[in-house]
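Appendix B, record 7
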Amino acid sequence: MGVEENGSSPSPADAAAAVTVTGARTVAPAKNRCTLATFDLPYITFYYNQKLLLYRTTAAPDFLPFPDAVARMTAALADALRVFYPLAGRIVVQREEDDDGGGGAGPGALAVEGDDGAEVFEAEALGVAVDDLAGGDCTDEAEKVMQQLVPYTGVMNLEGLRRPLLAVQFTKLKDGLAVGCAFNHAVLDGTSTWHFMSSWAELCRGAPLSLQPIHDRSLARSVRVRLDLPASAEAHEKTDPNGPKKPLVARVFSFPERTVARIKAAANAALPPAAGGSAKPFSTFQALGAHIWRAVSRARGLGPADITAFAVFADCRARLDPPLPPAYFGNLIQAVFTGVPAGMLLGGPPELAAGLLQKAIGEHDAAAVTRRLEEYEAAPKLFHYSDAGPNCVAVGSSPRFKVYDVDFGFGRPERVRSGGNNKFDGMVYLYPGRGGDGGIDVELALQPEPMQRLEKDDDFFLRQAAA
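C-alpha cells (predicted):
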C-alpha cells in the first residue's frame, strides 16, 4: 500500500494489513556452547523479549537506500553474533555424556549450543509513517501495527529448542525504518539485551566494541537442575490455575523531567530523620514506582483489604559477592516482591509506598540472592504470569538503559518500545525519555476499564499540581 492520490497516508487501522514480509534468511557465526545458569532457568516459560526501534530515515543525510541499509546491518549482525555467540545457538537438553566443563552442569541441564544463527526478516509497510507510531499518543490502532513490526509474538522461550534465539525484522516504512527484535529471555536479560544492541550498532558504524561480553556462566552459579518441560506453550498455559489471560490495553505515558522531579520531591518531602542522621532518600525509581503502584491500585478500584503486590526485576550483578561486571552476558535478574493491603497503600502518604520499595530492594543482598537460587534449585518451577501475585504491578527494563544511543549510522531512534510479549496485567516497562533530560516513558499494560480510569486520573499525571 503506497501513498494515496491526495498525498496523505492511510490511517494506522487501514495500514495494519500493509506490513508484508518480503524475505527471510539465517545469519550464523561459528559453533560454540554454554550451559544455562540457575538465573536463566525461571524464564524458560516466559516469552521472547521483544524490542522495537523506529528510525526516521528521511531526515538522515547518510541513510542508505533500504536494501543497502539492510545489507549493512545484516553484515554487522553476523559480526556481532561471532562475539555474542549464545544468541546464534539453540537450547538443548544435555545428555549424561555431555560435559562442557563448566559449573557442575550435568544430564538434564539446559545449555545453548550450535551455530544455526539468527533469523532475519525483511518487510515493508509503505503506508505507515514514523509519526503514526512514534507520537505521544499510543492508540489501539498504532499498537496493532507495531505488533506486526516485531517477530515471534506469542512464542515461548522453550521454543528455543527448535527456533532461533534471536529474530530480527527490518521493515521499510513510508519515511523510516523499523527494527524489531525478539530475544529468547532464557538466554539474556535487559542489561545484556542493550549491551548487544549497542554493540551491533557500533559494528554497523565501523567502530570497535566498547565493551566485550563475558560468557562464563559458571560465575553466576550453574547447578544441574532438571526441568520437566511442557510439550508446548499451549500445554503450559492450560496449567495456569488462574485460567486464560484477559484482554489488555497497552499505553505509553511520558513523564517529563519536571514531573519526575515533582514525584520524587513529594516522596522525600516528609521523610523522617533516622537515628544518627538523615534517612536514606528515595531514588527516582522508588518514588516513581510508588507513584505508579498507587495510581494503578486506584484505577483497579481495590478494596481496603485487597492485597496488592509490587515486583521489580532487579539486576543482581552488583549484589553478588563478589560482584559481576555489567559485561556479564546472560540473565542476572531476580524478581523482588513486596505487598500490602490496598487501604494502607492508598490511605498512607507517598513516602509509605516508596519506603516499602526501598526496604524490599535494600534487603535483596548477596545472601538473599543465594537463598533464592537455592530455593529454585531444590524445587524448580515453571512459572506463570499469575505467580507475580495478586493485583500486581511489575516493573521491567530501566530508564538507565541507553536505548536512544543505538545508532546504526543514521541517527538515534525516534521511539523505543516493547512488543506484545510478556505484557500481563500490571506489567510496566520504563524507558528514558528521548530527550535525555531526565524524563521517563512508562509503558503499561492493564485491563481496559482500569486503563480508562487511569487515563482520567489527575493525580497520576499531577495535573492539579501543574495547574
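Remarks on this record: The mean pLDDT is 89. The radius of gyration is 22 Å.
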